[in-house]
């Protein structure tokens, strides 16, 4: 999926192990869970993140990316404006 407005937005996907990434989990106020979660991270000047609270279904994720592309997604700021290091 590509954004409707061409602002040079690039999407990258990855996985983290929540049990091994304690500092990252604390920074996002997430508990170590067994269920997969989707998180969008904006690493720009203001380090921000968005966590998908609903189930991970194709139509829900499509809506999230459409809201991201249109600028309607509400992000939370990382504490201290830094993204925790992954180990």
Q: What's the quick description here?
A:
The protein is an alpha+beta fold and 87 residues long. The chain has helices spanning 22-27, 58-70; strands at residues 39-42, 48-51, 76-77.
Keywords:
single chain; 87 residues; alpha+beta; 3-stranded antiparallel sheet; 2 helices; 3 strands; globular
How would you characterize the overall build of this protein?
The chain is α+β, with helices and mostly antiparallel strands and 87 residues long. The protein contains 2 helices and 3 strands, in the order H-E-E-H-E. It has helices at 22-27, 58-70; strands spanning 39-42, 48-51, 76-77. Strands 1-2-3 form a 3-stranded antiparallel β-sheet, with no helix packed on it. The chain is globular.
